[in-house]
Amino acid sequence: MQILTTAAEVRRELDKRSATVGFVPTMGALHAGHISLVERARAECDTVVVSIFVNPTQFNDPDDLIRYPRTPEADCALLAEAGTDIVFMPSVEEIYPAPDTRQFAFGALERVMEGEHRPGHFNGVGQVVSRLLEIVAPDRAYFGEKDYQQLAIIRELVRQLALPLEIVGCPIRRDADGLALSSRNVRLNAEQRAAAPAIYRTLVQAGEKASEMDVEQLEQWVAEQIDAVAELKTEYIAVADAATLQPVASWDAPGDKRIFAAVWAGDVRLIDNIAL
Ligand code: PAF
């Protein structure tokens, strides 16, 4: 496994290979969810590239950027074991030689949920993902469905920029108690970690209760259940169309539906979603 830090080195290495390139962009602090993306890329592509870059432009909260876990040695050990060919670990200056002033317009997709609650977040995701895709130029790029809205935004980015690659969405990986794997989970204290599985548990119960109440009542019911758990405070609960991510007013609305949650456990923000 090669560990490279510049775009020129990555290009030089990939230009030597004519094979299918699979790419897994990450911010490091890797867990089994990330590794499942690498394994999928390994199974489907000849060359697997993983980037580790904590992108400052997507953090709307400066403290969140400072506290974001960084474990590069452990990450590289996991990536080597999973059969990664190239790890790209650039500096901020390598990705942004000058401040990135590009403004993306993702329309209604960015006006709800994470976009509404984290202003500027998806613009930063657009900046870094477009830059990484330009450098790596993969045939396929792999993203987890835990960040379901991010996945939709990235599909839209690729459509707008007419980039010739396939975006592959991969299922959420969970701990045995249901908590969605996230790099931020390591920041939970023992009480918060014990409380956090209530998020997924309640979303699953919501699926069972959907026939008993209307959409708004269900969102409220979920928020009440989660807020009743010590250590947890919901930021939003939203039932949305699985394709457009727009709020669903009634169960009779056409299309598949998902339920989304953003919940605080102390100063750690957790998100999750499931199909209804
Ligand atoms: O999902 C993430 O880890 C990040 O948002 C991504 C896609 C690597 C961009 O920084």
* CATH-level-4 superfamily name of the largest domain: HUPs
Structural class: alpha/beta
Main sheet: which strands, in order across?
1-4-3-2-5-6
Q: Care to count the β-strands?
A: 9
Oligomer: single chain
**Which architecture of the largest domain would the CATH scheme give at its second level?**
3-Layer(aba) Sandwich
- Which CATH class of the largest domain applies here? Alpha Beta
What small ligands are held by the chains?
pantoate
Biggest β-sheet strands, sense, barrel: 6 strands, parallel
Could you say which overall geometry the principal axes of the C-alpha atoms support? globular
Q: What distance separates the N and C termini?
A: 41 Å
User: How many structural domains in the coordinates?
Assistant: 2
- The third-level CATH topology of the largest domain is Rossmann fold
pLDDT below 50 for ≥5 consecutive residues: which ranges?
none
Order of helices and strands: EHEHEHHEHHHEHEHHHEEE
Helix-residue proportion = 25-40%
Name the descriptors.
276 residues; three-stranded antiparallel beta sheet; six-stranded parallel beta sheet; Rossmann fold; Pantoate--beta-alanine Ligase, Chain: A,domain 2; alpha/beta; 11 helices; 20% strand; binds pantoate; 9 strands
Chain-wise SSE layout:
Elements: E1 2-4, H1 7-15, E2 21-26, H2 32-44, E3 47-52, H3 62-67, H4 72-81, E4 86-88, H5 92-95, H6 113-117, H7 121-136, E5 140-144, H8 148-160, E6 166-170, H9 190-195, H10 198-209, H11 215-227, E7 232-241, E8 257-265, E9 268-275
Parallel strand pairs: 1-4, 2-3, 2-5, 3-4, 5-6
Antiparallel strand pairs: 7-8, 8-9
Helix pairs in contact: 7-8, 10-11
Bound molecules: pantoate.
Pantoate binds at residues 25-27, 55, 58, 125, 128-129, 147, 150.
